[in-house]
Amino acid sequence: MSDRQTMSSLSRSSSMHALNSNSSSCLHTLTQEEDSVLSLAATEKLLFSGGQGVHGSDIHVWDLEHFRLKTNLKGHLGSILCLTLRDDGKWLFSSSGDGTVRVWDTETFRCIYHIHSSQDVGDIFSIVFSSSLNTLYIGCQNTSIQWFDFSDTRQDVPHSPNITHALRNHNTPQFFQGRSNTKELEEQVTRCSIPDSSIYQNSHFGYVYCLLLGKVPNVEGEILFSGSGEGDIKLWKLQKGKPIEPWKTLKAGVDASTLTLALHDGFLFCGSQGGNIKIFDLETFQLIRSLIAHEDDVLALVVRNSQVYSASADGVVKQWNRSFEPLQTWNDHSGSVLSLTSTHDYLISGGSDKLIKLWAIAKGNPQPESVDSAAEDVMLYALEKWISMSTVSGVPAQLEECRRGAKFLKAVLQQLGAESRLIPGAPGHNPLVYGQFSARADNPEKQGRPLNVLVYGHYDVIAADIKKWDHPPFKLTGKDGYLYGRGASDNKGPILACIFAASELQEQQQLDVNVKFLIEGEEENGSVGFFQAVEQNIKLFEEADVILLSNSYWLGEDIPCLTYGLRGVIHSTLTINSKNVDLHSGVDGGAVSEPLIDMVKVLSELVNPDRTAKIPGFYDCIRPLTSHEDALYDPIVEDMFNNPSGQRHWDPLATGVTKEELKKKLMARWRNPSLTIHQVDVSGPKNRTVIPRSAKASVSMRIVPDQEVADITKSFEEHVRNVFGQLDTENEIEIDIKVVADWWLGDTEDRFFKAAESAIEQEWGQKPLFIREGGSVPAIRWLEKRLKAAAVHIPMGQSSDQAHLNNERIRLQNLNSGKRVIKAFLKGLRTLEAAQP
Which residue stretches belong to region Disordered (predicted)? Predict the structure, then answer.
């Protein structure tokens, strides 16, 4: 029994059900005499198949027009472990258990090269050929990777029968034991030996089972991928005439060998022992998914027409879509499926049942998602496609959609002329998207370096309940001048407006500042991993002069605003646990300390009757109100009193109050801290007879300048524990600080705020209202501190945009005008000087 067959004994039972309802029948079956079909390769007209070598070591050549055996290629003395073709299909490469590689002319079917190593390599499991480098790369049983440059004629050696086997130690265990029953045909065959200088010894700590050549995003040249019995995947840089250079190692786990590799759309698919397919994103080099794909070893992977196909020792072939979900299953083989290849028309599988099966596959070659430059309104077209991607953060099932949304944004940036790439986020979370439009180099008016503008935003969204929407939330719908869809206002629409503003200025040769984009995918999930990702790539951002964002809304419906402040937030969870299980109140009521009663007592000591927090020192460090800021409230109050039609349709503040009372309520919402109890939950069945063993409450505090997060958190925890400590209870309390975001306050007299004010007035014909927001954006204050750059917040949407709610929307006029405001802002910066180091 072979080692690869032995691996099947390590397989486990799978919970995945067979997708028989999606199965398709085989179009044609070919019989390869009496040998298992270990390897396959195909042109559009010919199919090549290699067997295990028990009854012969021929390579079978099949005519795909008539499905007939055309000829046999003889020469190898062992199992045919791998077959591959040159890009033009004119050369066939074969590797064998006899430790040699042969090269065949696919027109004459003549062997033209016979290649062996200067060392005993054992079985040769995998070979790949680089047409650009004219070099063959070889993966060996002795853990080496070797290469042969066909341009180097110095490697030719004199003809000599059986020179390869003279070098072989027959005591070396063979992966597939075959019988050497065919003499080599030596006429006109060029024999070559691989020198020691073309061998990378101990490339892995295991047999090198698979090799793959491909491109890596943002990296020039071909990359060699190798997988082995140790489970790791290694990436090697290649240069003509030079040794392979180890570059990166992807850790797929030590639990299973990596047996096969495939590359598609920036993702590396790794078929593993045991049945998993592990998927790496080659922009971030993160393991993003481990599919429980098969019930046994995944022995072959192939990509055709934007679909990935897998074959396994469980006898099943599967087709996977771009969301890594199975589309079809084929299970006509009666044994293991050992090999796969494809043509334009067929998926072709070879099995241990000695059969080759051909299946119809979808035609076409879908291109990577991008914007259509021929669309009448490219920005709306891009928004429509982006909204269709449900980039909900914090939901594991949506990880692929989020990554798809990130890659789409990267493609949009690149198509519009920006440099762009993905930045890895936290493991298991979404990547960040980086982009840059560079200032024109021939600006005669500019001295010194151009200003650097960093645009911050997020592409992730809040989940949407389709039953509560008037339109499908992930389909952009236009109605009565509004665009409806999740993310239309928060934050995909404003991000695209900023991108297209910079792109249009660049196209018009009027971009005199560098505009960089930092778009995260976890903002709605507490910005998990954001700060670490920025720190690891700080050189991209450290010269920022101003941070621009558009992630809030006007106060009303018809007067533009400029946001200069956001409150911070501290989210916490209080949990009170009993040592008992859930109890019956009729049996144990009054005899035990009840967690819910304790929780009610604790929560009652957090807020005063006047809605102020009871936390000691909570109000000690609030920045005093200046006369300048006080005056900023006056036009807001006047507008809310004199223009009720322009107010938020739900706003209760202006009802039944004086102007002074309204001002105080606005300050309570924007510039004063607060404490909120959001929800209380209990364990157990939640019926009226049960004493729950656990009670949990969610509490948040909104903080303002100059409160310190650490001080408020400490005071809150001490106060809660002091209150709980005064209770006569047997229970225990836990305090978990979930999310922390600092406050942000801009300087309305700053030169960048003045430029923003001017741009808004230029577009809307009136000065903006200067407002603050009660909500939080975790990244802004941190970016200001880390980059030592001021932030400017230009909201685009109206108060009725329904962000985070059902029927989210943005007015088309606001989106288009928002783009023009950003253009005017960027143009207005041309007269400003960059900050001095």
Answer: 1-20
274-301: average pLDDT: 93
Apex CA 146: angle with CA 140 and CA 55, to 5°? 40
Buried b (16+ CB within 10 A) or exposed e, 60-92: bbbebeeeeeeeebebbbbbbbbbbbbeeeebb
Residue 267 and residue 264: Cα distance in Å, rounded?
A: 5
Q: Angle, nearest 10°, between helix axes 378-387 and 492-507? A: 150
Which sequence positions are flagged as catalytic?
460, 523
Cα-to-chain-centroid distance, residue 571:
27
Taken in order 663, 664, 665, 669, the sign of the CA dihedral is positive
**Dist CA 730 CA 732 (whole Å):** 7
Global confidence as pTM: 0.77
**127-185 residue pLDDT tens:** 999 999 999 999 999 999 999 999 875 555 444 333 444 334 433 334 334 444 334 45
Tell which residue, 592, 38, 119, has the closest CA to residue 349: 38
Burial of 297 (0-12, 13-18, 19+ CB in 10 A): buried
What is the C-alpha separation between 341 and 349, in angstroms, rounded?
7
Q: What is the mean pLDDT of residues 531-536?
A: 97
- Contact residues for 685 (Cβ-Cβ < 8 A; gap 6+): 582
Using the 8-state DSSP alphabet, how is residue 169 labeled?
-
CA 602 to chain centre: 42
With tokens 């080659």, the residue in question is 282
Q: For tokens 């003549």, what's the residue?
A: 110
Mean pLDDT of the chain: 88
Task: Say if CB 336 and CB 57 are below 8 A apart.
Answer: no
Has residue 20 got a pLDDT over 60?
Answer: no
- ∠ CA 22-28-30 to the nearest 5 degrees? 130
Give the containing element (helix H, strand E) for 667. Answer: helix 659-670
For residue 753, give the H/E element and its range.
helix 751-764
φ, ψ for residue 554, nearest 5 deg: -65, 160
Cβ-Cβ contacts under 8 Å for 377 (sequence gap 6 or more): none
What is the topology classification, in CATH, of domain 568-622+672-741?
Answer: Alpha-Beta Plaits (3.30.70)
Per-residue pLDDT reduced to its tens digit, 173-211: 343 344 443 344 556 799 999 999 999 999 999 999 999
User: Which tokens hold the place of 506?
Assistant: 């660049």
**CB-count burial class (<10 Å; 0-12, 13-18, 19+) for 690:** middle
Report whether CATH 2.130.10.10 matches the domain 28-152+186-360. Answer: yes
For position 639, what pLDDT does the model report? 86
> What distance in Å separates the CA atoms of residue 358 and residue 37, rounded to the nearest whole number?
13
Gap between the Cα atoms of 329 and 320, Å rounded: 9
- Give the whole-angstrom CA distance, residue 127 versus residue 94: 8
- Domain positions in the chain: 28-152+186-360, 389-566+744-834, 568-622+672-741
Judging by DSSP bridges, how do beta strands 111-117 and 124-130 pair with one another?
Answer: unpaired
Helix (H, G, I), strand (E, B) or coil at 6: helix
Cis check: omega of the bond before 171, within 30 degrees of 0: no
3 state SS of 823: helix
Residue with tokens 């209770």: 727
Distant-in-sequence, close-in-space partners of 509: CB < 8 Å, separation ≥ 6: 440
The CA distances from residue 385 to 51, 295, 461, 503, in Å, are 47, 36, 15, 19
Q: Report the alpha-carbon distance of residue 662 to residue 478 in Å, rounded.
A: 36
Q: Using CA atoms, how far apart are residues 311 and 350, in angstroms rounded to an integer?
A: 9
Per residue in 318-374, pLDDT (tens digit) is 999 877 889 899 999 999 999 999 998 899 999 999 999 999 886 644 455 666 555
Residues with Cβ within 8 Å of residue 243, at least 6 apart in sequence: 197, 198, 200
Phi, then psi, of 707 in degrees rounded to 5:
-65, 140
**CATH topology for the 389-566+744-834 domain:** Aminopeptidase (3.40.630)
